[in-house]
Design a protein that fits this description.
mainly alpha
Length: 181
């Protein structure tokens, strides 16, 4: 969904609810994530009805016609089949690939985290953790990704422990690393 349209939806939402002004960016980010999840789920449900030859209730006729054209295209079907195969791959016994970004790219997620961090860079391990952590269980579902994050954190801790700490000089190697959650 284009950014300007997302912002219109957020402004309509903001007119109905109150929060402290300092929380607006956090609320905006949470709103956009929830809307993206709802949007994705709605499109999925409509596609499942289309596959069964049914028409959803309360859908704009033009929107429904456009979706049917889109889903009927060969390139859409090929992309869907490829994504399904990738998603259902067991990666050589390492379980099915699981992430929680929905339609958001890693780059977009990083941009969101940087914005939420006041424009300051974020540790890429935090980006990965955000992308792969189940929002309901607060756990990383993908065992391979969980192992990678744990390994990187352990190596980072080893590196930081091996660096001399100089309180007079903020340019030490340790100051170049952000702490992780």
């Amino acid at each position: 969904m284009p950014s300007d349209e997302k912002e219109i939806w957020f402004r309509n939402f903001a007119q109905q609810f109150n929060w402290e002004s300092g929380h607006t960016e956090s609320v905006r980010q949470a709103f956009h994530e929830k809307v993206a999840e709802s949007y994705t789920n709605q499109i999925y449900e409509w596609k499942q009805l289309w596959l069964k030859g049914k028409i959803p209730k309360n859908i704009n006729t033009k929107v429904w016609e456009d979706l049917q054209v889109h889903w009927g295209k060969l390139e859409t079907k090929e992309k869907s089949d490829k994504n399904s195969a990738n998603h259902n791959s067991d990666r050589g016994g390492k379980c099915v690939f699981v992430h929680n970004l929905w339609a958001c790219s890693m780059s977009s997620k990083e941009d969101q985290l940087v914005e939420a961090n006041g424009g300051n860079p974020v540790d890429y391990v935090d980006v990965m953790r955000e992308a792969y952590t189940n929002k309901k269980t607060c756990e990383i579902q993908d065992p391979l990704i969980r192992d990678v994050i744990e390994l990187v954190q352990a190596k980072k801790a080893e590196l930081l422990a091996s660096q001399p700490m100089n309180s007079d000089d903020d340019s030490t190697a340790a100051s170049n690393f952000k702490s992780t959650k």
